[in-house]
Amino acid sequence: MATDVTREEFEARVGVLEREVEGEKMVTRHILEQTRRNGDDLAAVKTRMDRVETRLDRVETRLGGVESRLGGVENGLGGLEHKVSALTRDLPRSLPTPCAMSCANGMARRKRPMLLIETEREEDGRWLAILLARAPAGHGAK
Question: Are 140 and 110 in contact (CB under 8 A)?
Answer without folding.
Answer: yes
